[in-house]
Write a structure and sequence with these properties.
Oligomer: single chain
Low-confidence stretches: none
Structural class: alpha+beta
CATH topology of the largest domain: de novo design (two linked rop proteins)
Number of strands: 7
Strand content: 15-25%
Order of helices and strands: EEEEEHHHHEEHHH
Distance between the termini: 57 Å
Helix content: 25-40%
CATH architecture of the largest domain: Up-down Bundle
Radius of gyration: 20 Å
Length: about 250
């Protein structure tokens, strides 16, 4: 039996001398693994298609124990990303996080849309990469069911002003309910709260359409780091490299 799926290649690994195993995030069947026979042979029709960050329509043969790629119609290779080492590292991280958050035979179409629009934003270079990273982390976790409560106090529902962030509580605490050991020691900049609300509520197609001040960026960094540490039980090698880049830029 053959099926046709639309999706993004999250990662590839070598199998034997000439084959590749692909992890594809698809609109129709969530995340799946498929084998591309001969994809490492010179001149094979699948060679160009079996690269990370490749988006398109894949024709798969459904075997007894595995999928096999028979044909691929590629719609976007994201070449502008593949010529920039920093962009490659960010894109690799986004694909690693997508791989962690998605599952086989689940409806991950919104995760796929988010990943696609994120890579587009990365390639356009109109929004800082550091902000793209935090937008992706916060929205991807929200789609997975771990959404920051950014619209009111977690404890009392107060929608006034004056908040701190506490990852373990899942979001914002008003001044009446925050404790001495909260994650960020000062009240959040109101622009940070607004940025969080924008990240969580704006349609994915319009998500990468704003910039923030350095102060707000730093607060968002702290919030996202604390939230990821609380709700993601995996360390990503690409993150270590990104953090080292950030440290070097700040030295």
């Amino acid at each position: 039996m053959q099926i046709e799926v639309t999706g993004m290649i999250l990662m590839t690994t070598q199998v034997g001398d000439y084959d590749r195993r692909l992890v594809i995030l698809t609109r129709e069947r969530g995340k799946l693994s498929a084998f591309a026979r001969g994809a490492r042979r010179t001149g094979n029709a699948l060679t160009a298609a079996c690269q990370p960050f490749t988006y398109g329509t894949f024709t798969l043969f459904v075997g007894k124990d595995a999928y096999r790629v028979q044909n691929a119609e590629i719609k976007n290779y994201f070449e502008e990303i593949k010529t920039d080492l920093d962009c490659i590292t960010y894109a690799t991280y986004f694909c690693e996080l997508a791989d962690y958050l998605t599952h086989e035979n689940s409806d991950d179409s919104e995760q796929l849309k988010l990943l696609y629009m994120t890579l587009r934003a990365l390639g356009k270079k109109q929004v800082p990469e550091s902000l793209i990273r935090r937008i992706y982390e916060i929205r991807a976790l929200a789609l997975d069911g771990e959404e920051i409560q950014a619209f009111a106090c977690v404890k009392c529902g107060n929608q006034g002003t004056g908040y701190v962030f506490r990852a373990r509580q899942g979001g914002l605490l008003c001044v009446d309910h925050c404790e001495i050991d909260y994650d960020i020691g000062e009240l959040l900049n109101p622009s940070t709260v607004y940025a969080l609300q924008f990240m969580l509520s704006t349609p994915i197609e319009k998500l990468y359409s704003f910039r923030v001040s350095q102060e707000v960026q730093e607060e968002i960094n702290q919030i996202s780091d604390a939230f990821m540490e609380e709700y993601v039980d995996r360390k990503f090698k690409s993150v270590e490299f990104l953090d080292s880049l950030s440290c070097n830029l700040n030295d």
